[in-house]
């Protein structure tokens, strides 16, 4: 895990979701969040991801989601939250067991997509996620940097790692720009690397509204489903390795 040598944020990506760049992304990362059946992934994909993580010395964690494979985890299930709680625990347990059989020790989990964003700002969903986290006290939780969930987790004595996104546009209030907007994704690799460098150095980035925003985080996430995923990861890795050097 190279970034930690210089006390820089760790570089992570969400993998095991069936996209084409997984194998090429692994050697560029410090951490991989592995889909564990809720929105994507199965036993075979989880085993393969763990084997790649071992080969490239990459830390892994579960990437649980709303149980919605058809909608790729974008739809919150109807009904009592206890059912969702059970599903999330089962997803994490499944990955933990597979990782352990491969000889890997996990240190974190990261909620996927809509669950991630809902829990960052919605007290009810945050409460559910923190309830799950308390069932896995050896794991920290990756959460959106600067979101209310950071404070809620602190109040519940749940360890979190604040996360930022070099390839996503931010709004002035610190939220990620919703994907319904054309400028939600930063598609220029140079701009992705520049935003990542601003985050690493604690310098302001430019929001969708044209305002300045400082985003401090312990880990940076690049989206593995982006057409520019590999180019983005190479550029950000090069920048971070340059800071170490």
| Global outline | globular
Helix amount: 25-40%
Q: What structural class should be given to the helix and strand makeup?
A: alpha/beta
CATH superfamily: Glycoside hydrolase/deacetylase
Mean pLDDT: 94
Per DSSP, the total helix count is: 8
User: Under the CATH scheme, which class?
Assistant: Alpha Beta
Can you offer a commentary on this structure?
- By secondary structure, this protein is of the alpha/beta class.
- The chain has a single domain, classed as Glycoside hydrolase/deacetylase (TIM Barrel).
- It is built from eight helices and nine strands.
- The chain has a seven-stranded parallel sheet. The protein has a two-stranded antiparallel ribbon with strand order 7-8.
- The longest helix has 21 residues.
- The two termini are 15 Å apart.
Explain the layout of strands and helices.
Blueprint: E1 10-15, H1 22-25, E2 31-35, H2 43-56, E3 59-63, H3 81-101, E4 108-109, H4 113-121, H5 123-134, E5 140-144, H6 148-155, E6 160-164, H7 189-201, E7 205-206, E8 212-213, E9 219-222, H8 229-244
Helix pairs in contact: 2-3, 3-5, 4-5, 7-8
Short characterization:
With about 240 residues, the chain is α/β, with parallel strands linked by helices.
């Amino acid at each position: 895990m190279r970034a930690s040598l210089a006390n820089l944020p760790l570089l992570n990506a969400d993998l095991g979701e069936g996209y084409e760049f997984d194998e090429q992304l692994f050697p560029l990362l410090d951490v991989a969040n592995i889909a564990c059946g809720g929105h994507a992934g199965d036993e075979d994909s989880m085993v393969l991801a763990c084997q790649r993580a071992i080969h490239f010395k990459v830390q892994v964690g579960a990437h649980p989601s709303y149980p919605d494979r058809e909608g790729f985890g974008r739809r919150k299930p109807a009904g009592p939250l206890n059912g969702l709680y059970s599903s999330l625990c089962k997803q994490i347990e499944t990955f933990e067991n597979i990782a352990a059989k491969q000889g890997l020790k996990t240190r974190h989990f990261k909620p996927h997509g809509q669950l991630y964003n809902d829990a960052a700002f919605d007290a009810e969903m945050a409460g559910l996620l923190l309830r799950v986290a308390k069932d896995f006290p050896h794991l920290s939780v990756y959460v959106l940097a600067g979101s209310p969930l950071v404070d809620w987790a602190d109040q519940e004595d749940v360890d979190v790692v604040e996360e930022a996104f070099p390839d996503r546009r931010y709004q002035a209030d610190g939220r990620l720009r919703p994907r319904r907007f054309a400028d939600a994704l930063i598609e220029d690799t140079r701009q992705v690397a520049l935003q990542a460098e601003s985050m690493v150095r604690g310098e302001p980035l430019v929001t969708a509204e044209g305002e300045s925003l400082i985003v401090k985080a312990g880990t940076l996430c690049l989206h593995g489903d982006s057409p520019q995923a590999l180019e983005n990861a190479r550029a950000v890795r090069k920048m971070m390795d340059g800071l170490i050097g």
